[in-house]
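Standup notes
- HV: blocked on the assembly model, inputs below
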Amino acid sequence: MKHTIVALVEDRPGVLNRVSSLFRRRGFNIESIAVGHSETPGFSRMTMMVDGDTTDVDQVTKQLYKLIDVLKVSDITREDIVARELALIKVRATAATRSEIIQIVDIFRANIVDVAPDSLIIEVTGDEDKLDSLVRLLKGFGIKELARTGRIAMSRGQAGVLIPEERPTPSAPPPRGRKLPQSREVTP
Amino acid sequence: MKLSGANILCQSLLKEGVEVIFGFPGGVVLPFYDALPQYPQLRHILVRHEQGAAHAADGYARVTGKVGVCLATSGPGAANLVTGIANAYMDSVPLLAITGQVARPFIGKDAFQETDITGITLPITKQNYLVLRAQDIAQVVKEAFHIALTGRPGPVLLDIPRDVFLEEAEFNYPEKINLPGYKPTYQGHPTQIKKAAKLINEAQRPVILAGHGIILSGAYDELKELAEKAQIPVVFTLLGLSSFPGQHYLSLGMLGMHGLAYANLAVCEADLLIAIGMRFDDRVTGRVADFAPKAQIIHMDIDPAEIGKNVRVQVPIVGDIKHILKDLNPQIERRVRREWLRQVDQWRHEHPSLAIRETDQVLPQYVVKSIHQVTGGNATIVTGVGQHQMWAAQHYIYDKPNSLVSSGGLGTMGFELPAAIGAQVGLPGETVWAICGDGGFQMTLQELATVVQENLPVKLAIMNNGYLGMVRQWQELFYNRRYVATPLAGPDFVKIAEAYGIPGRRVTSKAQVIPAIQEAQSHPGPMLIDFQIEPEENVFPMVPMGAALHEQLQGQPQKVKK
């Protein structure tokens, strides 16, 4: 099963390197990773797709949490989410095929963003299945170039992957009796 | 007032209570070394190879509980620290590695002695920093110490370019740090602790599996209370040794690949394993599918990523061991556990794993036992990796808390001498014995010069069998006695010691063992003893690779003599 994991990370040099190095070292398979700004300046949001059949997703989230620059990790696969991917497809188009391509593009509610004498660039947004089927349909015309962003995702409604509220970092193992952040209950 | 980056670094280290730096100078760290004499409180110990600096800082950190600091120049200096940093990372040792870097304008230009040390150490540090402004040094040092020492401890590396050491900035040591992504959990979840208490109170054949986390959190008293209150036998991981008195009637010694027979049998028959501050390494579990087949498992660790990584557990508790045990112990019922303890005692009698056979030859087991006898168990034992390490783990009785320093996870040969230097620096006036292998000792023996220069009274016991012993043992048992690349035409260790100005003794018979140890023990300075041990002595019991704990080989009778 494909898992969608969202991580909020500090926007510092080397963070992407740390994350990808972790995946490589632990032998985790990522299918896609998309990185960009989050709602809070100084923090980036990463969306990763991981194959749960070949990779222990629980370990992925726990190991990501261990990175100092990672603030929050959520596996939102089972949540009610909106998930999108964007693709740019440069497809061969002649006078004879152009109108047929335009029809397909219309059906997929995609856009043509560039027209050249022998090609078109199509911009399409949607889930992976939609993108896959459009690509499959256009293959017959000859795809010259393809760029996909990988999935980004967001929970619907109240739920969300947000930066945790500011808590002072305890400077030492704090004395007993003080109220402390408690461990998340981990289900085996 | 403005200070240079080098001065800011020194002042920041002092603010963190640093007393000792193990280091080796070089081109780009010259500005730091030039500032150092202004801070006589910072003792600099010159090693002979940067790997020695990292291991010495590691040994120092393990015995003091403080952050060990090592320093090297850019390029080869930094690269030479790598083994030591990886070692500290695997064993959760708080370490600060400071490296020089080429000046900012040269970074990325393949300048002389440039290497991407932050890139290289990415997977073996808890965090690392390339510090690009002098004004950031204080903040970064503060963060580095906090990260290295708290949560699950580990190494942090600071890479500082030469011109940042020279750049001037205001020095204000920060009071606070802001690390929104770093919030270790200390207090265990009460629901989980309650579940654990219930399992412990209901268990018939419980076993405590004690790991390094107990030592790191200083939970000796809490562990003892738990074991005694519920009458639970205790087995140890290698690094868990000395977390609970070895002489105690509930102590069963080390488990795992070279664990004692009764320790492994107890784990195999247990109906409840209480794993405390350990991570189910493959050397502990044997074949995972058959590990503790009858037991439910409670796993306490400060690192959530260790939960469920190697072994399925029923009750995980994330938190600091001392805190967890303090919350757990009041919920534990006092028990008398005659039947289970009698069974364990029966195994002890049936499988006397610590019995040493009678012979006039020098047996390594006897040497270790004699070191224990002569020192009264008051020494800190430092080992390298291999057969001697396992004999030291099995035959020395670790009564004193935190009295074993050994390379566990990474298994770094050559760790012993530099780590013993660090341990001795951290424990002035106490006895430090390095139990060394003749193979590993040759990997770092240049540090004998450091021992002499710093006048450290470490005692060195070399278990000299003329082989890379552990590899030879595997070749004997699993490769039909084909000894490829394991025989060592060793040097004369006594002469080597003497060349460095350290008295050396050679021991070739059993009768000489105790007098030699006594002489070293009463000698005020360092001393080296070359124990010429039985060359083909094996470490038993042994669980072969890929076998389950109950399939262990019991001992010498299995040996095929040709």
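- HV (later): unblocked. Chain A touches chain B through 40 residues (CB under 8 Å). Chain A has four helices and nine strands.
- Next: hand off to the docking folks.
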